[in-house]
Amino acid sequence: MRREEMADLTAFVVVAEERNYTRAANKLGISQSALSGIVRRLEEKLGVRLLARTTRSVAPTEAGERLVQTLRPMLQDIDQVVADLSEFRDKPAGTIRITTVEHAARTILRPAVTKLLKDYPDIVIEIIIDYGLVDLVTDRFDAGVRLGVQVAKDMIAVRISDDVPMAIVGSPAYFEQHAPPATPEDLVEHRAINLRLPTSGVLNAWRFLQDGREVRVRVDGPLVFNTIDLILDAALDGCGLAYMPLDQVEKHVAEGRLVAVLRSWTPPLPAYHLYYPNRASSPAFKLFVEAVRHRR
Prior knowledge:
Layout: H1 3-18, H2 21-28, H3 32-46, E1 51-53, E2 58-60, H4 62-90, E3 94-100, H5 102-119, E4 123-129, E5 143-147, E6 156-159, E7 166-170, H6 172-177, E8 192-195, E9 206-210, E10 213-217, E11 223-225, H7 228-236, E12 241-245, H8 246-254, E13 259-261, E14 272-276, H9 283-292
């Protein structure tokens, strides 16, 4: 059914219920003559008379009454759906889908949404871990979280963290078999536990500062994962060196289970950013943005 046909049927039902063109026209916000023309056009199209008119009143014919009885529940259902949607406008509710990497999910998103959901129980937040760079619109995500350098230029970007300190670590057992590297060049003699990036298909490069500029090095090794939890476990097991966010390993370093190397060579990564398309957002999403926004 075309939009104008639905509008004509709705106008007819209002006239039939009001039994008065003037009141119906006021309710619909159109002129009486325009409303009369709508009903006349509808009658001509259906080939039956829908309203019996006198100088004092308007009443549905038998055919008109049957049509009203059929349309009224449908229009009431539509009104209810619209009323239900108003809840999304008037109070924070609904589902927010976020694509992110696991480190940001663990250290930023989960702590922030824990408090948010206690205050707003009608919000549902779905967090999907994915190291790939997805299309937010195509994959029906409301927003993504990635390092600042990975955010597309046509997106709104909100900083949600400090820069991310990184560390290169290995277990004491590993260093019993391999001398600790003194420079990044020494890594050619070492075994790495790597992270595979699904979008490009390559191994995640390790970043270093050398002579005041950043260089990226890919280190070969026996193990490749797509989750940093498994990389950390493998490093603790002595399988090789791991390139990890510092906050994920510093407790192990402090307690002697891991040893950090090349500290002065390892710069932080750019801060995480929440990014999303430039479009109207719900009250729930606005609350989410404020909950994760970085505050110094």
